[in-house]
Design a protein that fits this description.
single chain; 231 residues; 2 domains; mainly beta; 5-stranded antiparallel sheet; 60s Ribosomal Protein L30, Chain: A; elongated; two-stranded antiparallel sheet
Length: 231
């Protein structure tokens, strides 16, 4: 059997010593946003080992507990806030196009529920969404930074969907639909926001699946929102 070819890349540290692990390394080692590393200075070289390790042949992956991670931080005198991603740097992962779907939304159903069910059925875990149609009613949301909660904006009566864009990713292991919507009344007046719930009269949607690493939403302590987690 041919031995696996090694990977070598050149990386440049940022001002405080942070480095970015190349994407092909992350894919090969299944490194994600929850992975911690053991960093060792050994004979003039830096050795980096993921803390999510196999304990023995055929054993399941070793998951470190919150208590163990906290101990690592205390031993190294690290402030957990230092683990936050540099907000000045654009974070992204590379994806490729998968399947494309055009479909109708069922009358009377919440579009968020209907689309999540569709993604679960088709095993779509990441993608881009757009929709048109009419809602009988809706509840929109405006995220208040101070309270870290969505202010609810009830919208009663038939409203045309003037624009609706969003995405699909995973949250708690299930497809999560995130939509922003613009609704118009009979006089052309509009209201817009984050779609919290709705009831479909008629609706058509376009879903473009993307394939690549897991796109997962996790709680972000700085914003109070569930945001995409990047390695």
């Amino acid at each position: 059997m041919m031995a696996e070819k090694g990977l070598t890349r050149i990386v440049k540290p940022r001002a405080k010593g942070q480095i970015t692990i190349p994407v092909d390394f992350r894919r090969r080692l299944n490194i994600d946003a929850d992975t911690f590393f053991q960093v060792t200075l050994k004979e003039g070289k830096i050795e980096i080992i993921p803390l999510r390790l196999r304990t023995e042949e055929g054993a399941s992956l070793r998951e470190y507990t919150d208590e163990e991670i906290q101990r690592f931080l205390e031993e190294d005198r690290l402030d957990p806030k230092m683990l936050a991603v540099d907000v000045d740097m654009v974070q992204a992962m590379e994806f490729r196009l998968g399947r494309s779907f055009l479909g109708r939304l069922p009358e009377g159903k919440d579009p968020l529920v209907a689309l999540a069910d569709f993604c679960r059925e088709k095993e779509v875990s990441a993608g881009w969404l757009s929709a048109i149609g009419t809602l009988r009613r809706a509840v929109l949301g405006y995220f208040d930074e101070k309270s870290r909660q969505y202010l609810r904006i009830p919208v009663e009566g038939f409203r045309e969907i003037a624009s609706c864009q969003g995405n699909v990713s995973l949250r708690d292991g299930q497809p999560f639909i995130h939509l922003h919507i613009v609704l118009s009344d009979a006089d052309g007046r509009t209201v817009a926001g984050h779609l919290l719930e709705g009831e479909v009269f008629v609706g058509e949607f376009y879903l473009q699946e993307v394939l690549g690493p897991a796109l997962v939403r996790r709680p972000d302590p700085q914003s109070g929102l569930a945001l995409w987690a990047f390695p």
